[in-house]
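Two proteins were folded this term; both appear here.
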Amino acid sequence: MANLEGTVAVVTGAGRGIGREIALHQARAGAKVAALARTAREIEETAALIVAEGGQAIALPVDLVDRAVVEAAIARVVADLGPVDTLVNNHGSFRAFGPIWECDPDTWWSDVEINLRGTFHTCRAVAPAMRARGRGRIVNLVGGGTGTSFPNGSGYAASKAAIMRFTECFNDTVKDAGVHAFAVDPGLVRTAMTELQLYSDEGKKHLPDIERLFDEGVNIPPSRAAALIADIAAGRFDKLAGRMLRGVEDRDALEQAMDDLVASDGRALRLTRLDD
């Protein structure tokens, strides 16, 4: 297990599913954890689970679209737990399904705003102190549509592709100061988000492949991404900063492949050259 003793981790979307598992893994590796999300009851449950296992955690209800609220939350983390060593942006919204002429424009934009603007706000809030201390790691979760088309999921896909590019740009801006940023695709995990896709009328109509994949047994345990992120937080994959890692992969094999991935410019968001 990764050793995160003496570190402080902030995990957004930490009230359930993948986010709760990430928070628990960070705590079990020794980190003090701040669990952030909009629903107080859920993150309080996450914090209570960590405390029950002997860890230290606080729960902070946050609307990540509100920059002032985010900045106040990060200040509270620093005051209560100490400087932030690891930030994991796990929050996500995917409620606009279908072709854009059928999607509610406000819902479509809300997905983009929560996913992308929320990530911008948290990164902006922690970056100056990380740079000043000369260390820090940020993990931004991506997913379906990051590198390929996602028919009838354009808002979510556009936001995740943007987060991938943002992660690379951000990493290239801060890496010389000892700060590293990563993108992680957890794979298809059964969460409240995918339940909405499975059982809502719009989801059944426009995203039938989700049900098919689950029927075929594709259901990645959230612990896979959580364990990977704990290793990232401990520095195991620093060579791959600015790139995308996947929860489904064998971490030992990934470590062996790091030099080749960097040499080939793999796991990055790139356009195919016209002369290829």
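Next, the second protein.
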Amino acid sequence: MSTATTLPEPTASKRPQLAHLTAVLDDLRAKGTFFRLRVLDDQQAPVCHYDGREVINLASNNYLGLCNHPKLIEAALEATRTLGVGSGAVRTIAGTMKIHMELEEKIAAFKGVEACVVFQSGFTANAGTVSSILGKEDFILSDELNHASIIDGARLSRAKIKVFRHKDVAHAEELLKEVQNEPGRKLIITDGVFSMDGDIGPIPALCDLADKYGAIMMVDDAHASGVLGRNGRGSVSHFGCTDRVDIQVGTLSKAIGALGGYVCGSRDLIDYLYHRARPFLFSTSHPPSVAATCMAAFDLLEAEPERIDRLWANAKYFQDQLRSAGFNIGGITTPATETPITPIIIGDGRATMDFSRALFDQGLMATGIAFPTVAEGKGRIRCIMTSEHTKPQIDKALEILTATAKKTGVGLA
């Protein structure tokens, strides 16, 4: 006989302490930018089911289709069978398993650097690294469109933050000149690929500045990992700057298809992060299944470069067709995409979210992005092409986009 206690049904709280949160949500609803999470019912794939509806999926970061690749699935299952479902501790106490070290060694060899440390996410890799290597006497020069994890890491470091105009190397140098004689270290940091516009950072020119002024050079390669460079080694490889970039951050959650982030660089940098990076020190390490999955993914990048070729071919076709149809996918007042990230610029936040919902109703998952993720007036539908989309799927997506734009009067120039 069951002895389980029956809990009362939850009721709406009458306490006023969090009323300010309700006010913010009410404001989002008034502006038309409030959203509810869409729920994926099956695998992350070019065509899948969200909220029970079959849709063509242009919203995921699964660039190379590795989220459900059979070799990655088998690697995860085998690691689980032999090593269990969890590590049981943080890395510095009892949670460093041999498979974690093997993954870090594989990534370091792949990136052509001395060492690597894996974090629980790309966000913690950025935030944990920036906040630990600098202090209040130091300076950070950061692109104005850098990812939120870089911004948060900079704030946590308590360093003095100088923001240069997007990809404006001359402005970055002006700021460096202002502080070159100040005590403290200087860090230049940029995204390799900017996640909202899809453009590529000016890494060689920023490396020149770092060399000229003795600054630390750091690149966040989250959206370049598996996409740019030889076999997907990233934007630093793409520009041949591996020996000029002191800190490379990457992700295991996008093209790699699993979960986590990593930092690559010198042996001393990684040993220092082992001792001082707070997300590393105070978070339980990855389950063995995740580490095994990631290693299998890096093997596939080496063995199947044609996946990256397909990704770029699909992206070019999709973007060419969008331009021909009259969609604004960047340029003039907005950075032009240079990667498979394809923003359809709408502008108004409410119009952006309404357009995204209309697309979903017609069978296309293409997420609306509005303030505060992007600046006010810069709302867009962010589409991401993958290597696994077929031409008929892409053509159907284009058909839905064009028909919906004409019906709603939104999206087309």
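Residues 306-325 form the longest helix (20 residues). The mean pLDDT is 94. These notes refer to the second protein only.
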